Amino acid sequence: MKTTVFAAGLLALSTVAAAAQSAPPEMGAPQPTPTCAEALPQIQSLIDQAGQAGLDTTDATAHVAEAETARGANDENGCIRSLVLAQNDVLAKAQAAAPEAGGAPAAPPTAN
Fold this sequence. Notes:
Blueprint (H helix, E strand, L loop, with lengths): L1 H20 L14 H17 L5 H15 L3 H22 L15
Helix pairs in contact: 1-4, 2-3, 2-4, 3-4
Protein name: Secreted protein
Keywords: Signal
Organism: Aurantimonas endophytica
């Protein structure tokens, strides 16, 4: 149940983020991409939340390690690329764990 709630929340957040990226011109210019240093703690927090919700975060954690290595080598693009891979991995696993769109979450099992 915890995973389902996390996944549903994460899907709602990703929908809002996608809408924010395609805002109409009257809403102003899109926000600049965060730097590696700004994005790293945010992605790490996302991974921590996913892990607490029961999702497998092994691949995402490996991508964060790659991002930290790239950051140490002053490779901003490599760092951001690895963080995007980590985020995408968590989103994909959350989507797979979420109930099908439009369906109600499964009821918890009852004791007989």
